[in-house]
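Methods — Computational structure assignment.
A single polypeptide chain was analysed. Its primary sequence is given first, followed by the predicted tertiary structure written as structure tokens.
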Amino acid sequence: MKQQTRTMLQLQDQMNSKVHPEWRAQGNAWYRAIWIECGELMDHYGWKWWKHQSPDTEQVALELVDIWHFGLSILLESGASVDEIAEQVASTLSIATDEPDFRLDVEAFTAATLADKQFHLALFGRMMAGVDMSYSELYRRYVGKNVLNFFRQDNGYKDGSYRKQWFDGREDNEHLVEVVETLDAGAPDFSKAVYRALGERYAK
């Protein structure tokens, strides 16, 4: 778990640095991005009592991964070392909940985020438990999304030349899902393997 956390922290730092080399000094409102994602997550899960809704757990999982990106950024911005943060995650993040209503765990996490603008690992773990997401699953999805973000930037996302629709008329996100499922997430070069596989598909 600690090694996976260290890998994700390094990838997050690299991605943030690609957006701005001095990203830690920019005063980015990571907490705001988090609570907005929580709202989107609730829409995917369903909360409207006046219409039939079924939880879209796949989209909920994707939103949790997006929240994790911003949460890692808050932890990195604290000034703690990668090893210190990895220890903090290992000792604080417990993937368990005693709350049968997932939406209440989401609201508790959102309220805590808005209260102090920090990232609440313990409450995030409760949301993971609510959709049966393991840490290994979080890692696999996170690395995949992070690498796709890099791939987009490297292939013209900023200037508008990037093609989001790839062969077979499917979007890059769909190809990403297939790629990460065929690779060994436990391999030390997992992120590089994902990037290479995306490049092969993009060239078709």
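Note: The CA atoms of residues 100 and 184 lie 33 Å apart.
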